Amino acid sequence: MRCIGVIGAMEAEVSGLKEKMQDVQVTRKASMEFYEGILADKKVVVVKSGIGKVNAGICTQILIDLFGAEVIINTGIAGSLNNAVNIGDIVISTDLVQHDMDAVGFGYPKGQIPQMEEFSFRADEALRRIAVQACREVNPEIEVFEGRIASGDQFVSSQAIKDAIVKEFGAYATEMEGAAIGQAAYLNGVPFLIIRAISDKADGSATVDYSTFEAAAIEHSIRLTYRMIQDLQA
Ligand code: ADE
């Protein structure tokens, strides 16, 4: 059976999945706890990576090296960068870019990692299709979008910063891990998908909205991730 790695940055983003797991064995590595077991009859490893790109990249590499993960799914929340994408809605990644990667001084476009061919890291198309379908089934009251996600080591909570990221990258959502997971998965040739439910609009109201809507958004992402795991081939 192939192993599905599931990453959430925060405990609240993975606890709903851990609760449903059977035959769990916990392994500690790099200060992270990897929950290995069975979920919806699939072999999974569910882990809280911690926040930010470095934690997320390390976590992804461990899932691949230590557990042989052949699929990586990231579930969590994000700020909306698109007026059509409302709080509670889901964004499924098409591709991931690091909005805080800046080698402009060397002639690279903002976001481009120097000396790498790819500007952005593309999510797996088959996983995208399964996720969109699953989302319509389990979250019929919200909209599901497919679009670029821009990640950075920054909680975006100002209109000016939001506008700059939108102008530069045309992304649908911003968060703090997806592009690192995408980059690590890409480097290892492992298919991945980033699933994010919107908790805020990444503007001046983001901090207050985040606290208000975090739990409901997480619920949407968890519900979708669980259905996806049910739908994936073992
Ligand atoms: N995660 C949820 N909302 C976010 C925001 N506004 N910026 C970065 N990460 C987020």
Mean pLDDT: 98
Low-confidence stretches: none
Radius of gyration: 16 Å
How would you sum up the global shape? globular
Helix content: 25-40%
How many DSSP E strands?
Answer: 10
- Give the biggest beta sheet: 5 strands, mixed, barrel
Percent of residues in beta strands: 25-35%
List each distinct ligand once: adenine
Structural class: alpha/beta
**Main β-sheet, spatial strand arrangement:** 5-9-8-6-10
Describe what this molecule looks like in 3D:
The protein is α/β, with parallel strands linked by helices and 234 residues long. Helices cover 36% and strands 31% of the residues. The chain has 6 helices and 10 strands; from the N terminus they run βαβββαβββαβαβαβα. The protein has a 5-stranded mixed beta barrel with strand order 5-9-8-6-10, surrounded by 4 helices. It is globular. Adenine is lined by residues 77-79, 155-157, 174-176, 199-200, 202, 206, 210.
Fold blueprint:
Elements: E1 3-8, H1 11-18, E2 22-29, E3 32-39, E4 42-48, H2 53-67, E5 69-80, E6 90-98, E7 121-122, H3 125-138, E8 144-151, H4 159-169, E9 173-175, H5 178-187, E10 192-200, H6 206-231
Parallel strand pairs: 1-4, 1-5, 5-10, 6-8, 8-9
Antiparallel strand pairs: 2-3, 3-4, 5-9, 6-7, 6-10
Helix pairs in contact: 1-6, 2-5, 3-6
The structure holds adenine (ADE).
